[in-house]
Amino acid sequence: MQKEIDFSTLLKDLPQIISARAANALAKIRILTVRDLLTHLPSRYENRCRLTPIAALVHGEVAQICARVIKTSIVQGKRRVFNVEIADDAGDVCKLAFFNFYRSQTEQYKIGRRGIFYGKAQISPYGHFVISHPETTWLADDEIPEISTNLSAIYPTVKALPQQEWRAVISVILKNMANYFEKNQQDALTNLGYFPLEQSLNVLHSPTLNDGKREITLARARLALEELVAHRLAMLDARSYLQSFPAPSLPSDGAKTREFLQTLPFALTNAQERVRREIAADVAKNIPMLRLVQGDVGSGKTMIALFACLAAVDAGLQAVFMAPTELLAEQHAANLRRYTTGLGIEIVLLISKKTTKEKREILGKIKNGKAQIIIGTHAVFQSAVEYHNLALIVIDEQHRFGVGQRLKLQEKSHQGTAVHQLVLTATPIPRTLAMSNYGELDTSIIDELPAGRTPVRTTVISSDKREILLERIKAQVAAGAQVYWVCPLIEESEVLECENAQEIYLYLQEQLREIRIALIHGRIESARRREIMEEFAAGNIDLLVATTVIEVGVDVPNASLMIIENSERFGLSQLHQLRGRVGRGNRQSDCVLMYQQLGKTARRRLEIMRKTNDGFLIAEEDLNIRGAGELLGTQQTGEAGFLVADLVEDRELVEKAEDLVSDWKKNEENFCQILLNRWAEGKEKYLQV
Ligand code: ADP
Ligand code: MG
User: Fold this and answer.
1) 469: domain CATH number?
2) Measuring CA to CA, how many Å separate 678 from each of 23, 45, 114?
3) pTM of this structure
4) Which residues surround ligand 2, an ion (CB under 5 A)?
5) For the chain, what is the mean pLDDT?
6) pLDDT in tens, 454-463
């Protein structure tokens, strides 16, 4: 007897009910399990519940005809056309036309053969009805056509299987899951008025004529809720798993920390102080900290992370500070070294472009414990890097590091102890997203900027007016300030008619001869890039023409004018990040958003930028405009890749799921386990990536 089918069953393990050919075709589009298949929801439904007599055809309307082939021909015009004439029982005639066809197809249309033909009827220029490329189901000579009493689902992915086969495969799976459904007839969701699982799936894949929009919405909501709850449960499980290991307790008032506090050139903001304490309380415990610090650009997150690092150093242990790009890693290293001058702390920078000899030396220091704070990109977690006694990981992540990757870092802890984890995000994350994507973390928010900052003024102008900026640049530079000019591309591209950094650089050099201009972008060698950034930070460069390499983290308080070329090509969060490069000192700063062509979405984006400096608001809008995957930058890795739930559309369900979880964890343990098995195959999904 066959093993019971559940959501995790692999399609290729069901040869009796799904052909190897179909399973292979589905595997190509990443549909591997019953779960993948059943959650591949139709994009729309067609009504095939009745037959249309040919005499009753209406131009432009979809019809289903039961008829017999009476004539076929191939017409050689500009294109080859395969024409078929069919006649129904009343003797009325209609044509079928095929523009792309194979012999195997034409051979099926034998004179006298009966079938059901489904497609859109149109009146041809010659005045008769034609259906192009109908969907055909052949009937035996005396077969009574079996007309569906349900609406027919139309699936969005046509490449894998023809529509009929999608429906057939799903229907056979659902039938074979009777046992599974039987056991799950009643659960906490049916108690809340949702359809049982089986009914929900039937409504979605094969609704009856009575199932209207409301039923379909309700059925979908059950699946989305199940998925969201399971996700949340898995995150909580992952969290308790991580916290089941002991972590070293780190002091928040050690010698280095106290010394650092004394040399700090400014007072921490109230928000910084609050978050510093939250972190101090976390790391003092013998369980690993799992904390996310959200704070708008310029709110001073680096400083807070440094306090955490110092706690590790004071305990005689190591801390890793991980940046999303090498440029930022270099800058963090420079900043942390500057902040900690005189404290006698060994900070090493591990980046790919160092020579083999340098790297060997750094790796040696990491291994023997001489290196106390280690800065780098994710390369710091390559297997070649062995830590002496790692206690803390700071991830300055800008959304590029997903849950799975974070959990994997745990492997770098030594001898069964866990590391404390601190995640910093520069772009505030809307609540629903934070809940789903950082669900295993506690959250701290730095909702205050250091005193003396004046909000950046933002203007939007057409790129035709570029010249007026030349005067503004001159004035800024004369006043001792510095300027960024950001372009979306490095080189000229024929595809995108964007201004490119190179060309703008040459143009500005020619126009502004008295001004010191430099060009920086990702293809410039990293040592040279660092030199340029250092020169800019030191005030030896007035105007920096750049691509988005300066997007995150770059910190030059004297820069007060940010010009963004082709700003319509940037996303909201990216624009907010870029704008955050100015307004860091006490000068009034400006941001000029230039555009070439404004579509509707771009116009909306730039308008939002003009109106607000509030990163949380901007993040919400970005979520509305772009969708979750893109905002998190994890579309490829599928971190935000829910099968049914949509973090933008289903925000209410996300909230509801969170409430349900707190209730069910206490009162519905059994159902929680069922949901985990159904959707997440247990916590393994998150722990073994
Ligand atoms: P972000 O949150 O964007 O990472 P940073 O940590 O880079 O912000 O800090 C931005 C700038 O503000 C840096 O130049 C930093 O030295 C400075 N800064 C941080 N905290 C304060 C403070 N409490 N008062 C004044 N300046 C501060
Ligand atoms: Mg930062």
Assistant:
1) 3.40.50.300
2) 20, 26, 44
3) 0.73
4) 302, 553
5) 87
6) 889 999 999 9
